Amino acid sequence: MLTKRIIACLDIKDGRTVKGVNFVKLRDAGDPVELAAAYAEQGVDELVLLDISATTEKRKTITNLVRQVASRINIPFTVGGGIGSVQDVAPLLEAGADKVSINSSAVKNPDLIDELAKEFGSQFVVLAVDTRKMSNTWAVHTHGGSFPTDKKLFSWAKEGQERGAGEILFTSMDHDGTKNGFALDPLKKINELLKIPVIASGGAGHVFHFFEAFTLGRADAALAAGVFHFGEIKIPDLKLYLKKNHISIRM
């Protein structure tokens, strides 16, 4: 059985870590560099840093912040936000990123997935899919969840895999920040549809929700933010709970 991964996410706005509910009502959650170092120390498996306002502000990812975070951790590190071309990636790699996450730019130009996979390898490319249920379908959103598109969750995730994405980061905007659990039905369907790893995101509020994501949702990894930032779930406690419940997890 493959080891499941616990991922901490740092949503960055104006150089600070923030957390909201359903992608709005953001509140400050602390210094991203210090949080990253603390998570690495606590045993989180991976870290994701998303510069959530880079696309809407039409600017590049904060490379200097990426460099500061990378200097404090020794775990795989994914960076996203404002990446619109192959050329945007080199500075992030040099700053210490292991993988990049693309969303809005990939929806606008799906060939970007192919280009990044060809240039750096599929294992380097994470396709982030922010989605909300609208008229009985899961509609893909861009620009930090601000704009609905005509792309649908399942067909877009499958296209991403075919174009060369190495992982899918699936976030249910309806569940984000609610602490009511992950969107298990679409999560399970994506995992049945795809061969590449799927990261569950949006809705974690209890250690049991991670267990559900790994069992009922068949996720390869589960990501959370607020419950980690504000100390509601401690990573060592979460991993111990999962291990006791027969989830293969790295301690």
Question: What would the keywords be for this entry?
Answer:
251 residues, alpha/beta, TIM Barrel, eight-stranded parallel barrel, 10 helices
Write the layout of secondary structure elements.
Blueprint lengths: L4 E9 L2 E6 L2 E7 L1 H11 L3 E6 L11 H8 L6 E4 L8 H7 L3 E4 L1 H5 L2 H10 L4 E10 L2 E6 L4 E6 H11 L3 E6 L11 H10 L4 E4 L5 H9 L5 E4 L1 H4 L5 H10 L7
Parallel strand pairs: 1-4, 1-12, 4-5, 5-6, 6-7, 7-10, 10-11, 11-12
Antiparallel strand pairs: 1-2, 2-3, 7-8, 8-9
Please characterize this protein's 3D structure.
By secondary structure, this protein is an alpha/beta fold. The protein has one domain: TIM Barrel. It has helices at residues 32-42, 63-70, 89-95, 104-108, 111-120, 153-163, 184-193, 207-215, 226-229, 235-244; strands at residues 5-13, 16-21, 24-30, 46-51, 77-80, 99-102, 125-134, 137-142, 147-152, 167-172, 198-201, 221-224. It has an eight-stranded parallel beta barrel, surrounded by six helices. Strand 8 and strand 9 form a beta hairpin. Helix 2 (63-70) packs parallel to helix 3 and helix 8 crosses helix 10 (235-244). The longest helix is centred in the first third of the chain and has 11 residues, at 32-42. The radius of gyration is 16 Å and the shape is globular. The two termini are 15 Å apart.
